[in-house]
Write a structure and sequence with these properties.
Chain C: It comes from Aromatoleum petrolei. The structure holds 3 protein chains of 3 kinds. Chain A is of the alpha/beta class. In chain A, helix 7 links the parallel strand 5 and strand 6. Chain B is α+β, with helices and mostly antiparallel strands. Chain B has a 5-stranded antiparallel beta sheet, with no helix packed on it. By secondary structure, chain C is α+β, with helices and mostly antiparallel strands. The N and C termini of chain C lie far apart (50 Å). Classes of the chains: A alpha/beta, B alpha+beta, C alpha+beta. Chains in contact: A-B, A-C, B-C. At the A-B interface, helix 1, helix 2, helix 6, helix 7 and helix 10 of A face strand 1, strand 4, strand 5, helix 1 and helix 2 of B.
């Protein structure tokens, strides 16, 4: 796979590891947050941690749309599907297993008779509505700025077609406002208990929004940001660039992912999104609570295709387990093993908190890929 | 994250669609979000949509930067490379 | 499969295998069922035991000292026909492989069919022919069977359960609890082919590729392996849940850890690419014609050579080592240079967007 395999090369990884070890100042510690679950996944999946010096620590941020989706939003979809036999809910595979209230998930609701279908693309949901005019097809849309333009596109197509049996339950959220929440958290801003020396910025989100929106963080909060691709060499190079910025006392937005990200981003997609969506005043994120202006809702001209308006759906907030430390983990205050629930009552099969929900969440990534590190090394006989 | 992968356009299809190739696997995707993509271009594909074109020159430059990593810093790097080899 | 072979030719029109469909009568026990059995099943599977047409097959006892091994496997697959195979040959291979990885010599199969009313007889005939072909090729006859029909909407075309009987030579002990620290872990070929061949056919995911299911009967390969290394400790076919889940099962059963070398694990480029597209990991994708073998390190070279000499093991590879680890963790050295765990599959493997 061209432009994939080259960015996973083990020989280059060793060279980058050497360069990082050389450039990191042994007299200090570095703590960087990779905002996106994509980076968290790459770090865990490829074992990037093993290639970093001990004084470089990665904090796993809240950038996994499945993880931050509040239970109450899934409940809305489940209630709708179970109470309206004529409704078919379409969603991405990721959403199906997210636990909701009453021990349900979309997959379990399906087992109770709800018509829930997995789609690969928003376009598939639209096509399904055209194919089944007798049913109400509701697309349960999640995702960051990356996944939003396709949803905008199907909404405008539905409007153009006058497709009355299609609507969208919109859960699209915005990256910059979540980063802002982390920077504004007392531990980072006032208490300084979480040393946060910089961010690895989103890869694919940035293909849409460009590198410009991060300038504010660099300037206002004096935090370096390096936008990086999701392949492991991209992550390592970004870490190296962040270390250089810290060493030089710089706080700039740099772009490692120049092969796909420009300063202004994808203007066509941005235009489409702003035509269809507007900001929500506030939106609940699992682990971060209410975050102002952090999500999108469907604009009034498209109200006929807004499932919330069409079916009168109400959001009811559902608190996480009290012992759950996801909020602190997402802000870098704690690590998964600091949580009493981790690996005991909270596992990928039975997630209690947001970080365990998707394999990109900090807890699930550590559970699935890294928990051997918590246990003293046993003498192996591996050759 | 947002799972997306670079794939090469092998055929333009009617209605803003195209067929892409990824390591021998072919899939029809939408080009509605990018302008001016041509056969032979690499695009970043997410949920069946091309999000942006991949700039091949930039990709080569980034790879060249990786490759240089081991060469800079002269003697230390050489020692590290020997040690690892 | 009671044949009720009393229908006189000429009294009944032959089954319409071109346009006919399964109806409730085909499972009702009357003439229609007898006709389906004689014209389709009995004709395809014909062998001395089935031909007797009794309610059960009477079979010779295994050789003295040999033990009987029984395995049963229910087959549901959607779609029923896929590149590289169909539910028919799959149902034969699956059960033969369950016997083979115990080190047993597969002898006989029993098959039962649950058919959905309305299912085209042409499709059923295709499935049965494929099963019969697979069974003859493997030298393991279907000696008895059963057919039921469920109302439309209560099945998915056809479900097939096969039960197999095999003979296990005296003293042979192959099982998931036998792995020991230091042992070598081998696989017989590329991983994930079957699962991705199926996935490619799903309407919601459809992509074009040349990926074909690896469905195959492995008892010939196993026999060749046992000839080379009689002391193989563990054999298992990594079907659902893929290599990762199967290795975790063995690690747990044997209370050992494992360390794999990612670079050594064979995956076809197209399977790897399809996995990238869907956000899946080939280590968790199903196989139907591959096996994992664990043997003493000193036997590994010989076993690998025997596997590679067999057509079904050409791409066999030595992928890792069993370690002493009371946590039974399966770990992997990534090609990138790091380490991680390879855990059990969580839930069903679903394509991801993020």
């Amino acid at each position: 796979m061209k432009y994939v395999d080259e960015f996973r090369d083990g020989t280059l990884a060793r060279k980058l590891a050497d360069a990082i070890a050389r450039e990191a100042d042994p007299a200090r510690n570095y703590a960087f947050m990779e905002f996106c679950g994509g980076h968290t996944h790459a770090i865990s999946r490829y074992g990037v941690t093993d290639l970093l010096p001990a004084n470089v620590r990665m904090i796993h941020g809240p950038g996994c749309p499945v993880c931050v989706l509040p239970i109450g939003r899934i409940d809305m979809a489940i209630r709708l599907a179970l109470s309206h036999p004529d409704v078919t809910i379409c969603t991405y595979g990721d959403c199906l297993r997210v636990p909701a209230s009453d021990g349900l998930s979309l997959l379990k609701a399906k087992a109770r008779g709800a018509d829930i279908r997995m789609v690969y693309s928003a376009a598939d949901a639209l096509a399904l509505a055209q194919k089944m005019p007798e049913r109400e097809v509701v697309f349960f849309a999640i995702g960051f700025e990356t996944t939003t333009p396709p949803t905008a596109l199907v909404l405008s197509q539905a409007q153009a077609l006058g497709l009355a049996n299609f609507s969208v339950l919109c859960n699209h959220v915005l990256t910059p406002s979540a980063i802002l929440t982390i920077l504004e958290s007392p531990e980072v801003r006032e208490l300084g208990t979480v040393p946060l020396d910089g961010f690895i910025g989103p890869a694919h989100v940035s293909t849409i929004i460009g590198s410009r929106p991060y300038a504010f963080f660099a300037e206002e909060y004096r935090k370096p940001v390096v936008i990086a691709g999701f392949e492991p060499l991209d992550v390592m190079q970004a870490i190296r660039m962040l270390i250089r910025q810290v060493n030089d006392g710089r706080a700039e937005v740099e772009n490692e992912f120049t092969r796909a990200v420009s300063e202004e981003g994808n203007l066509k997609a941005q235009g489409l999104v702003s035509e269809v969506f507007e900001l929500r005043r506030s939106f609940e994120w699992r682990g971060l609570r209410e975050v102002p202006y952090s999500a999108l809702k469907i604009r009034a001209p498209f109200a006929a295709w807004d499932a919330e308006a069409k079916f009168g759906l109400e959001f009811v907030s559902v608190p996480d387990n009290r012992a759950c430390e996801c909020g602190a983990i997402l802000r870098g205050v704690k690590t998964p093993i600091d949580c009493k629930l981790f690996g005991t009552v909270c596992t990928p099969e039975n997630p209690m908190g947001s970080c365990m929900v998707s394999s990109e969440g900090a807890c699930a990534a550590h559970y699935n890929y890294g928990r051997f590190r918590d246990i003293p090394v046993v003498a192996g006989t591996a050759s | 994250m947002c799972l997306a992968i670079p794939a090469r356009i092998v055929e333009l299809l009617p209605g803003d669609a195209c067929r892409v190739d990824l390591g021998g696997v072919r899939k029809e995707i939408s080009l509605a979000l990018v302008d001016g993509a041509q056969v032979g271009d690499y695009v970043i594909v997410h949920v069946g949509y091309a999000l942006s074109k991949l700039d091949e020159e930039e990709a080569e430059q980034t790879l060249a930067l990786f490759a240089e990593a081991g060469l800079t810093g002269s003697s230390l790097a050489a020692a590290a490379d020997e040690g690892a080899a | 499969m009671s044949l009720a072979g009393t229908i006189k030719k000429g009294y009944v029109r032959p089954l319409d295998l071109k346009h006919g469909r399964v109806d409730m009568g085909h499972g009702a026990g009357g003439r229609a069922m007898a006709q389906l059995i004689s014209e389709l099943f009995a004709a395809a599977f014909a062998n001395e035991h089935l031909d007797r047409g009794d309610d059960a097959a009477v079979l010779p006892a295994p050789a003295p000292g040999e033990r009987l091994v029984v395995a049963t496997d229910a087959h549901v697959v959607s779609p029923l026909f896929f590149p590289g195979g169909d539910i028919g040959c799959l149902s034969v291979h699956g059960t033969i492989n369950d016997l083979a990885v115990m080190g047993a010599r597969p002898l006989y199969l029993a098959a039962s069919f649950i058919l959905e009313e309305g299912f085209p007889l042409a499709n059923l005939a295709r499935i049965v022919q494929s099963m019969a072909h697979a069974s003859r090729e493997a030298g393991v006859p279907v000696v008895t069977g059963d057919t039921k029909v469920v109302e439309q909407g209560k099945g998915d075309g056809a479900f097939i359960t096969t039960t197999g009987v095999g003979a296990l030579p005296h003293g042979r002990d192959i099982g998931g609890a036998n792995a020991r620290a230091g042992d070598a872990i081998l696989v017989s070929g590329t991983l994930g082919d079957h699962g991705m061949a199926i996935m490619a056919q799903r309407e919601s995911l459809a992509f074009d590729s040349e990926i074909a299911s690896d469905t195959a009967a492995l008892h010939g390969l196993v026999a060749a392996m046992l000839d080379a290394v009689p002391a193989i400790r563990v054999l298992r076919d990594p079907t659902r849940g893929g290599l990762a889940t199967t290795l975790n099962e063995i690690a747990t059963q044997s209370s050992v850890g494992m360390e794999l070398d990612e670079a050594a694990i064979p995956v076809q480029p197209q399977v790897a690419a399809a996995c990238e597209l869907l956000g899946l990991d080939p280590l968790y994708v199903a196989n139907e014609g591959k096996l994992i073998a664990i043997c003493a390190q000193e036997d590994a070279e010989r076993l690998l050579a025997a596997m590679r000499a067999h057509p079904l093991g050409e791409r066999a590879a030595h992928i890792g080592t069993v370690t002493a680890d009371p946590n039974a963790f399966v770990q992997i050295r990534t090609s990138f240079g790091g380490r991680r765990m390879v855990d059990w599959l969580s839930g069903e493997q679903l394509p991801r967007i993020c």
